[in-house]
Amino acid sequence: MAQTVRKDWDTYFMDMAFMASTRSRCPRRHVGAVLVQGKKLLGTAYNGAPMGVPDCSEDGCMIVEEFENPPPGSEATGLIKKQRCIRTIHAEQNLLLFTDRIDREGSTVYVTDQPCWTCSNMLANSGVTEIVYHRAYPKDQEKVTALMRQRGIQFRQLDGYTPPPDTEVQDVSAG
After folding, report:
1. What Cα–Cα distance (Å) separates residue 125 from each residue in 46, 95, 118, 128, 130?
2. What is the number of alpha carbons within 13 Å of residue 65 lying toward its C-beta?
3. Confidence label for 55 from pLDDT (cuts 50, 70 and 90)
4. 58 among known catalytic residues
């Protein structure tokens, strides 16, 4: 009889984050997040419009363009253009909205994508002590990594991870 390989905890919880992301109706990117304390799952969330409001698949994305200066010490020159949809609430934000502070103290967040700057700020004040992500978000990488270092939050990309089949949606946005 063939022996089944048991998944490690990081893979197990990241798989759950990707499964949560399949609930998203965002045409640009599906993002999922889970909150874990020890080995106990405390909450799941995904990106999307507020409850009871038409989502992007129904009413289209509400894209805004923003420009910001490159981070200090960066090789980038000139303003950095960012596009984002303001119809959706990010998975990390929904996770914080639907979990209790007491549960977040000392917990880990597994998220399919590296948190953006706004979500990182929120997570930095949430009580979590570790954030594990799969896909990088280069536009905010330097400043988010610096913030996590300053806050003493473990911040790591899950190396060698492969998402479960049929859970990844390719980003179709231009920025």
Report:
1. 20, 13, 11, 8, 12
2. 7
3. confident
4. no
72 three-state secondary structure: coil
The helix (H) or strand (E) run that includes residue 67 is: strand 63-68
Question: Residue 69 and residue 165: Cα distance in Å, rounded?
Answer: 38
What does pTM read for this prediction? 0.86
Instruction: Reply yes or no on domain 9-48+89-157 having CATH 3.40.630.30.
Output: no
**pLDDT tens digits for 59-97?**
877 778 878 777 667 777 778 777 777 778 999 999 999
Domain boundaries along the sequence of the chain: 9-48+89-157
- The pLDDT value given to residue 146: 96
Task: Give the span between the Cα atoms of 61 and 28, in whole angstroms.
Answer: 9
Tell how strand 108-113 and strand 32-37 pair up.
Answer: antiparallel
Catalytic pick from 65, 66, 92, 105? 92
Is 116 marked as a binding-site residue?
A: yes
The residue among 121, 111, 112, 175 whose CA lies nearest residue 144 is 121
Dihedral over alpha carbons 134, 89, 142, 44 (to 10 degrees): -30
Residues near 174 by beta carbon (within 8 Å), at least 6 away in sequence: 83
